[in-house]
Design a protein that fits this description.
By secondary structure, this protein is of the alpha+beta class. The chain has one domain (2-165). The chain contains four helices and eleven strands. The radius of gyration is 16 Å and the shape is globular.
Length: 168
């Protein structure tokens, strides 16, 4: 049990270290519209507007991230992962962009572009670590972004980017 506790603490420290602003000095900014073009096209066939941030900061090159997803029954779910076929598994999860008819998550209330009220939940760890999440409702649809490297300011900027750009 002690070995597990030490490992969990080490993993938590590593994840939180990655989520700090110091990361901004390394890695690369990825053009999400280019990286997710096929997934965005598939998502557009659904009933809701596709709101995706323009860019995302990554700790790896764009070629090392794998996109998947598209339209769902009630909206869309587009993922980016460190490995192909990740299916939102914690070990390879990088980011997720969703829209659908789900209730707004509880978290810290934040003000987004166009005076939209959103909800932010930071990275948190238990048996495994969950990414930062920001969510907002627009035209009766819940939009959310999850991101393993996201702090509060970064998540607000990503939501603002998606809102300001409008449907993709």
């Amino acid at each position: 049990m002690r070995g597990c506790a030490r490992a969990c603490v080490a993993i938590t420290v590593a994840v939180l270290a990655l989520a700090t602003p110091a990361l901004a000095t390394g890695g690369s900014n990825i053009n999400l519209l280019a990286k997710l073009a096929p997934e965005i096209t598939r998502a557009r066939t659904g009933r809701v507007a596709v709101l995706i941030p323009t860019t995302i900061h990554a700790d790896v090159a764009a070629s090392k991230l794998y996109a998947s997803g598209g339209r769902t029954a009630g909206g869309y779910d587009i993922q980016l992962a460190y490995a192909p076929g990740c299916e939102d598994a914690t070990a390879c999860f990088f980011a997720d962009f969703q829209a659908g008819p789900t209730p707004l998550l509880s978290g810290t209330r934040v003000t987004l572009a166009h005076a939209i009220t959103g909800s932010f939940v930071g990275i948190h760890c238990g048996a495994s670590c969950a990414p930062a999440t920001i969510a907002w409702k627009e035209s009766g649809v819940l939009y959310s972004v999850q991101y393993v490297l996201g702090g509060r300011a970064t998540m607000i900027a990503m939501a603002d980017s998606a809102i300001e750009a409008g449907p993709r």
